UniProtKB/TrEMBL annotation:
Entries under SMART domains matching the protein: CTNS (SM00679)
Domain Creatinase N-terminal: 259-392
Domain Peptidase M24 span(s) in chain numbering: 559-771
Cofactor: Mn(2+)
Peptidase M24 C-terminal domain ranges (all copies): 787-849
Family affiliation: Belongs to the peptidase M24B family.
Protein name: Uncharacterized protein
GO cellular component, one term: membrane
Cross-referenced PROSITE patterns: PROLINE_PEPTIDASE (PS00491)
GO molecular function: metal ion binding; metalloaminopeptidase activity
Presence of keyword Transmembrane helix: yes
Statement: the UniProt record of this protein carries the keyword Transmembrane: yes
């Protein structure tokens, strides 16, 4: 069958106009380890024709290595004909006719006859980077099918190139008792060959029935086509069925050339392994396009990850939120390290195995914290006597600059009014200086952008140093406005950001002084300061903790912005249900839905933008925890699948983060069971009452117990702090199933998300997320006089009752749902017109359970 595919491809190249030429249809396949395989996705956009199909896969296995497979996984109907961010395309314009049918048929007959005479199959050599030769169902335990070549060949010719394409004409002619447009000889020939083909299938193996479903895809009718070839890294094949390999809207980029160039530079700099973190100089979680170095070199675009490149290997570590995404985006050059899973080595352990003693590991010292660098340096020395070297030159940048590296964008520094901050920044300065006096520190160094923004209540700041009688602000001059200068007045000295490292190296006012610094201080900055016998206080930065505890004005701001945000979401869900269910529209993509959510949010007071990239995902894509819908070519929202929307807004009076999962058709029993167990976990955590001094890690099990009871779980934290018009992910508090070194106890005034979930890989995802505030709770008793805390719900968006299995709920849980929905209707309803779509949806979804 591969011979037929190759011949037909060559025929296309000869007889059709080529629009673009960069196509490698024969993918490079490497040796794989046991129970693993190399996946190649081929996505096509067919115009309407007889054999249109949305999810067909064929698995081709080599004789040499039966673990290795290629999966052709087209998604015909949901891709738009525009070039996506990743991948290489060719476009073929049809000019075929009946002559092309005869030519290709004759060619295939000649090739097939020669193969038959030699009494052997055409089996391309794996080392020559060609496709494979035999066909097998991926979930079959039998050996590859040895079909007679003449049956395979004739069945291919007649089913695809002639009979299939002419069925509409045959039916039309039958009514008119005509033979117009059909050769009687060819028709007779094709009928006999089809019978022979069917007989061959029955006589040899029922596994070859799998082939029938794939033949229409291989060629189909002679219509306009667009092909994209992409590769992902090795994934485990064991216990996988064909349904496990679904197409998602991520594309794999070939990183071979980039890695080759990086390794050349590594040799010049005497580096044996190069570290590529995700962060920028301020060690931010979300970075600008110009700082996405790890994404550039690896092709993996998730927000969390750490890449290491040696002279022979490349590996990337990421957490459970990104396992599926990384599997799809990383190419054959990379090994995916799934952090947290058994048997996955740490970065230092892996380096100690792939490197020898006294070899050099290097990193851009501006992009790693001093805390992480010192830990890694000590571990590498201890485990393998390996050196960690700080570089001031970024090797990835040297490559990227030749490939169109984007320039740094400088947004204006924007002061925030006292009516939103609740505390004048002069008061905050006094609080910080008072803390320095208590701790005996000379000053404080802040590099975290959210810490600085809270401290001065100005946005787009880069670094700040505060002494007892002086404050120095380092910022790009392009960001300074007259409004900024007026806001800061005589309080702060502004210095251009380009002077920061030089100042720390040469400014002797730091000598013999003790500073309070946060773990976000980058390594290069610390190395420069140390030249003057600078001493650091290892206690967490006072600002980081103070920022996490909101004042009364900020808490009210959270209530207000969450209510307005909930109104926007209710309007959106009402609109979406009407479009999908009542109007039965089938052309709303994930990205289009994300744009529509933004439209509704923009109507709300004080809205300033999204708080993170909207996660609008349907079906299998929702199992990718931090999925990013592509602007073009994304999946369409299907009423037969679960739809997950994780989105948030930035408002002058607060930040929101909400996730809801809905089904616009009829959910399966398993989907309802999973959804209900996630809901039970959400209710248990939201209802928790706990003593002062409790850390989030002590509460996490409440959200997972219902899932654990049936052997399920999820690979992300249950809650994170939320900033007030700041980072949507804010520390130091959090709720997770592991103890974090810098974790602090929950305190009244803190905010957190509550977001348990469950994700069935390649099938669906469920998450229910609200933002809540930590508040004091008055109880009948007060053991040890420590005081007790609970949560206040800020988010007011109904939970879809259609997905709830009431039989799994306790009486208390049912009452919680009814009370919450009563509160949603009472608070959100007045902001909606009674005859509006949003109001109708809100009323329907808040009915008593």
């Amino acid at each position: 069958m591969d011979g037929c595919l190759i011949i037909q491809y060559l025929y296309w190249r000869k007889n059709r106009k080529r629009v673009e030429t960069e196509v490698n249809i024969f993918s490079d396949v490497q040796e794989s380890s046991e129970e693993s395989c190399l996946i190649t996705e081929v996505e096509e956009n067919f115009s309407n024709h007889l054999y249109q199909n949305t999810r067909i896969k064929s698995v081709l296995i080599s004789e040499k290595t039966k673990d290795e497979v290629i999966i052709y996984n087209p998604d015909f109907t949901k891709r738009q004909e525009t070039k996506p961010e990743y991948g290489t395309f060719n476009t073929l314009s049809s000019s075929s006719s009946k002559v092309s049918l005869v030519n290709s048929t004759v060619t295939l007959l000649i090739v097939g006859s020669l193969m038959y005479v030699k009494d052997k199959y055409y089996q391309p050599n794996l080392s020559q980077k060609e496709t494979f030769s035999k066909v097998i169902s991926i979930d079959s335990n039998t050996n590859p099918l040895d079909m007679k070549i003449i049956g395979s060949l004739f069945g291919y010719i007649c089913s695809i190139l002639y009979t299939g394409a002419l069925i509409p004409q045959i039916l039309k002619n039958y009514k008119k008792r005509s033979c117009k447009g059909i050769s009687v000889l060819f028709f007779t020939f094709s009928t006999l060959a089809n019978l022979f083909f069917i007989f061959s299938i029955i006589s040899e193996s029922l596994d070859s029935i799998y082939l029938i479903n794939n033949l229409p895809w291989l060629l189909g009718a002679s219509e306009h086509k667009k092909v994209q070839i992409s590769e992902t890294d090795k994934i485990h094949l064991k216990n996988k069925s064909t349904d496990d390999f679904k197409s998602h809207s991520y594309y794999t980029e070939d990183t071979t050339e980039k890695l080759t160039n990086l390794r050349k530079l590594m040799k010049e700099y005497n580096v044996d392994a190069y570290l590529v973190p995700s962060e920028d100089e301020n060690l931010s979680e979300y970075v600008s396009n110009t700082d996405r170095r790890r994404a550039f070199i690896s092709g993996f675009t998730g927000s969390a990850g750490f890449a290491i490149v040696t002279l022979t290997d490349a590996a990337l570590w990421t957490d459970g939120r990104y396992f599926l995404q990384a599997t799809q985006q990383l190419d054959k050059n990379w090994t995916l390290m799934k952090t947290g899973l058994a048997g996955v080595p740490s970065r230092e352990d892996w380096l100690s195995k792939v490197l020898s003693k006294h070899q050099n590991v290097a990193v851009d010292s501006k992009l790693i914290s001093y805390h992480e660098a010192e830990r890694l340096q000590n571990d590498l020395k201890r485990i393998g006597e390996i050196n960690l070297i700080p570089l001031e030159t970024n090797l990835v940048d040297l490559i990227w600059l030749k490939n169109g590296k984007p320039n740094k964008a400088h947004g204006p520094i924007v002061p925030l009014g006292l009516q939103f901050a609740g505390e004048d920044f002069h008061e905050k300065i006094a609080r910080v200086r008072a803390n320095n006096d208590v701790t005996g520190t000379f000053g404080i160094v802040l590099t975290g952008l959210d810490d600085i923004a809270w401290y001065e209540y100005i946005k787009s700041i880069y670094m700040i140093i505060m002494f007892k009688n002086e404050i120095i602000l380092y910022a790009y001059k392009e960001s300074i406005t007259e409004e900024t200068l007026l806001h800061l007045k005589d309080t702060v000295s502004i210095v251009d950001y380009s002077h920061i490292y030089q100042d720390f190296s040469e400014n002797h006012k730091f000598s013999q002084k003790i500073f309070n610094v946060d773990v976000k201080l980058n390594w290069l900055l610390l190395l420069n300061i140390k030249k003057h016998n600078f001493h650091k206080d290892n206690v967490r930065s006072f600002v980081t903790v103070a920022k996490s505890i909101k004042n009364d004005v900020e808490i009210q701001g959270f209530r207000n912005c969450s209510l307005r945000d909930s109104v926007a979401l209710v309007e959106f869900f009402g609109w979406l249900e009407k479009e999908l269910v009542k109007k039965k529209k089938k052309n709303i993509s994930e990205f289009a839905a994300a744009k529509k959510v933004l439209e509704f949010r923009k109507k709300q007071q004080y809205f300033r933008g999204v708080s993170y990239g909207t996660i609008s995902s349907v079906g299998p894509n929702a199992a990718i925890i931090h999925y990013e819908p592509p602007e073009s070519g994304g999946d369409l929202i299907d009423v037969k699948q679960l739809y997950l929307l994780d989105s948030g807004g930035q408002y002058l009076d607060g930040t929101t983060d909400v996730t809801r999962t809905l089904h616009f058709g009829t959910p399966t029993a398993f989907e309802k069971d999973c959804f209900t167990r996630v809901l039970k976990g959400h209710i248990q955590l939201d209802s928790a009452v706990f003593p002062n001094g409790t850390k989030g890690s002590s509460l996490d099990a409440l959200a997972r117990t219902a899932l654990w009871q049936v052997g399920l779980d999820y690979r992300h934290g249950t809650g994170h702090g939320v900033g007030s018009y700041l980072n949507v992910h804010e520390g130091p508090q959090g709720i997770a199933n592991k103890v974090i070194e810098e974790e602090v106890a929950l305190q009244a005034g803190m905010t957190t998300s509550i977001e348990p979930g469950f994700y069935e890989d390649n099938k669906f995802g469920v998450r229910i997320e609200n933002v809540a505030g930590v508040r004091k709770v008055e109880l009948e008793n007060n053991f040890g006089k420590v005081g007790f805390l609970g949560f206040e719900k800020f988010t007011m968006v109904p939970i879809q009752l259609k997905l709830v299995n009431k039989k799994l709920l306790t009486k208390f849980e049912i009452e919680w749902i009814n009370n919450y929905h009563r509160e949603c209707f009472k608070k959100v309803g007045p902001f909606l017109k009674k005859n509006s779509i949003g109001y109708s949806w809100l009323k329907k979804e808040t009915k008593k359970l």
